Amino acid sequence: QVQLVESGGGLVQAGGSLRLSCAASGRTFNMYAMGWFRQAPGKEREFVAAITRSGNTTDYRDSVKGRFTISRDNAKNTVYLQMNSLKLEDTAVYYCYTGRNGRDYWGQGTQVTVSS
After folding, report:
1. How confident is the model over 17-65, as pLDDT tens digits?
2. Which is the most buried residue in 20, 53, 59, 113, by most CB within 10 A?
3. Which residues pair with 65 in a beta bridge?
4. Strands 78-83 and 92-100
């Protein structure tokens, strides 16, 4: 069983920055890739970014490339999402994700609201 707890969301003006954190339980954090997804009102949940277990390889959806950075600290069992140059369309609930042994694990989500 894995528990994921996100933090760091909030209200920010367009062009501003936020850093999301996701703390994971357990002692096998460094064995699994991690990801961030988001879901805006009335829309489906969508992929935002992912990072391999070592942190050497990352992937992003096109609309956030160059603005968002995913990273991880395996010593702290934590994955981060640094979000810069935020846009109105980045407003959503952001979820931390990992898949292990055929099961999906999600955090409870953290709200990010970008205002004009």
Report:
1. 999 999 999 888 988 999 999 999 999 999 999 999 999 999 999 999 9
2. 20
3. none
4. unpaired
Neighbours of 14 (CB within 10 A): 14
In which residue are the tokens 């879901």 written? 39
Whether residue 1 is predicted with pLDDT greater than 90 in this model: the reply is no
Provide the β-strand partners of residue 59. 50
Cα-flanking dihedrals φ and ψ of residue 85, to 5°? Answer: 50, 50
Rounded-to-integer distance, Cα 33 and Cα 110, Å:
20
Query: CB of 105 within 8 A of CB of 98?
Result: yes
Contact 55, 74 (CB under 8 A): yes
Residue 72 has pLDDT above 90, yes or no: yes
What pLDDT was estimated at residue 27?
84
CB atoms within 10 A of CB 82: 15
Buried b / exposed e along 49-62 (16+ C-beta atoms within 10 A): bbbebebeeeebee
